[in-house]
Amino acid sequence: MKKKEHGFSGSIGFVLAAAGSAVGVGNIWRFPYLCAKDGGGLFLLVYLVLVLTFGFVLLTTDVAIGRKTKLNALNAYGTLRKKWKFLGYLTFLVPTLIMTYYSVIGGWILKYLSAYVVSSGNEAAQDGYFTSFITAPVAPIVFMLIFLAFTAWVVYCGVEKGIERFSRIIMPGLLLLIIGISIFSLTLSHTDSDGTVRTGLQGLAIYLLPDFHGLTFGRFLNVLLDAMSQLFFSLSVSMGIMITYGSYVKDDVNLSQATNQIELFDTGVAFLSGMMIIPAVFVFLGTEGMASGPSLTFISLPKVFEAMGGLGRIIGIAFFLMLAFAALTSCVSVMETLVANCMEIFHKTRQQMCIMVGIYSLVTAILICLGYNVLYFDLTLPNGTSAQLLDLMDYISNSFLMPFISLLTSILIGWIVGPKWITDEVVKNGESFPRAGLYSFMIRYIVPVIMLVLFLVSTGFMKLNF
């Protein structure tokens, strides 16, 4: 197999870069609101079980395919079986769609960060602030452009000098910010006008302790499906990113140990994000604030920071700086996947492809921004939810393509190529793979069934009426 021109310097570089890809808006924005929606501790318990089973299977598969083939997702599947090369093209579609809107969300984060840097940030807590910003004709494009430019610069610098060096600096700082704000959230307390006192520790109890009261099979299945869909956001699997990063990994790196470290880092950040956000929202907004769903970060949290008084500005700066770091590391991995694939398609240099992908990202991101004003439309998706242009791209990539790709990959590896193809790559240098038996069982019998159910429910072909 030909040696890649670029690669990570070693295991630490790979783990930090891969963890940077995995740790993103999905961990800090999506995980806490899903956890709050699905019963706190119950969602957390289900998610942890899934990470140790499905998460490790999907992550190990992607990384091992990348390292063994030394190819990006576009061509890697074709080396396993020629008739399955189409799966590489399906995988390539996912980052192509995600790149259209990820820098837009990054721009939203920068807007909120700037609101706390240049002023008290209290205006960000006012009703209608978020809506007025995203529907503005120019401001969202300007902030998106700043975020996209930084992303493109990191990718332009390359794997070791760009992505790895950036990850080595950002990831430790990100972790320190999350830990610091998490600890601070537990010290909070607030007294309502009627004398009711709420504390951060009470919010922590809601977050950690599963509530099985009134639990039905239908509710549990919804929690299970929410937790499973979170895995895709959280671990960057089934979108070609981990195959691309795996292709940069040296043969002497212990894959089993590296994937365990990525799992631990990613899950740890998701757990701390919940501990950082849920107790704080509970203290100042009660259980009603915890049920605010996707608006938790951009609408509810600024109200929490405002309620903290003068300290709220400092916490607001720290929080949105941390969120910007997380969004940037993930956006870098998405753009890197596109650049790496396009280098193989067009046989051009990294710098040339980075410029081309950057132009594509800029044009499509502008269209997404305009989707909230001049290009606005209201569409009902097959799963019954209402959507605009950004929601449509997110639905196609995350609810349709990613479960479908995971389903097909599990069939390819589990029943056509054979799990031994993956396990042999993991232990190629004599390393141990304690979960090899679990991997083989899961990839053949469990993953295909659950992925099929998730795909059918997400696309509206199966209704859960219990």
Automatic annotation (TrEMBL):
CDD domains: SLC6sbd_Tyt1-Like
Transmembrane region(s): 12-29, 41-65, 86-110, 130-157, 169-188, 227-248, 269-291, 311-332, 353-375, 395-417, 438-462
InterPro entries the record matches: Na/ntran_symport, SNS_sf, YocR/YhdH-like
Main localization, broad class: membrane
Domain of life: Bacteria
Keywords carried by this UniProt record: Membrane, Transmembrane, Transmembrane helix, Transport
Pfam family, one: SNF
Membrane topology: Multi-pass membrane protein
Location of the protein in the cell: Membrane
Name of the molecule in the record: Sodium-dependent transporter
Organism: Hominiventricola aquisgranensis
